Amino acid sequence: MSNYLRILKTASFLAVCLVMLIPLKGRAIDFKAEVDPLAQSLLNDGLAVGFVVGIYKDGETQILSYGETEKGSAIAPDGDTIYEIGSVSKVFTGVLLADLVQRGQVKLDDPLQKYLPKATRSSLTNRSGITFEHLATHTSGLPALPDNLSPADIMNPYADYTHRQAFEFLKNYKMTRLPGEYEYSNYGMGLLGILLSSREKVPYEQLMIEQIAKPCDMNDTCIKLTDKQRERLAPPFDATLQKSKNWDIPTLAGGGGIRSTVNDMLKFIAANHVEDDQPLTKALRRSHEKRHAMEEGEAIGLAWHIESDGITRWHNGMTGGYASWVSVVPARDAGVVVLCNTACDKITEFGENITRITLGETIEQPAAPAVVKVSPRTLKSYEGVYAITRQFALTVKLEGDQLTVQGTGQPPLQVFPESETKFACKVIDAQITFAGEKNGKAAMLILHQNGADQVAKRQD
What is the mean pLDDT of the chain? Predict the structure, then answer.
């Protein structure tokens, strides 16, 4: 999987489709021995509070749970524990689009202007021919986020973002390039959800439930939780395992607002492997189709990312206190879901590895980390503020015998020595190297992240 992708970081449907209950066989499959070491590594490294793994293979399922629902609770999560699934919601939006295309309600090459409110359409600044397909494949040319997103609560950043603001941004945004090039856009997929629900004249949540959740008997897949469901919601934790806040995404729900359980997501995975002529089955197959070629042999369908093997469809997700992964491999009758109540970006790698295990591939189990000792005096010499840009700096502090690094506006993260000068962060895929010397202190550090090296000079 490319580093670029890793950064990642209705009208009533029941009238045209019989309710499709997906029967799942008993749990005869057993991948516990292969999954346990990978899962335990995440827990031992302090990267996650708890998570649940669901595996689907040849019509059978297995659920494995790890950690706790809350630190110190000793309560293990299970298949009915509810999580925010973040950007995995985009897959549902892709399927909604596929179904409307299947039913002749819209076309993939319909320009988005066709479905905009009249006031927005008449004053649209850019008329660059963005289509539904562009929105669903992240090739619209729209940015990752709108620049008029100014949350009252940064810990719940989408809660007060309105439809009016979403359309206002679109009216005023000046395209920097024509559609056709992949650039991941939360805003673009959220806008697609708005347009689809507007076309069907029902809220996005109702459209998703009627068209996907109900046919698959997914009773805990929704946006707004009932009081009973909220009792099963795993509380959110940030990357440092501190209590976080739930995200409410009422307007851009199609980009990341859905909550679900592993039991429900296994039903969704199973539906992706059904072979019949039901409307939902056809929509799911259409969503899998390759729409845009990408680097390293990868591609994208209607929201689904397509691995370079050509057969694996996947998506990941993250909110302020959750991380998720889902994959389906129809050609091999396999799929995996991982739901975690910690904002841990290692869940993507973890989910990818379990998918490979399910396909019969051998995964290198994590080795015990090498212990490197660095003297307190040397660690103390690294303390300071290192500026990458005028707006963004890394603050290095020594707390006890532990070095932490804090980016501007971000929580502090622990880093661990790989040598006397190089340190790695376990929470995110990043390393820093201290270099030079000035008055007995490091003169600079180099941040290694996402395949790039950025030099940050110490500020006196």
Answer: 90
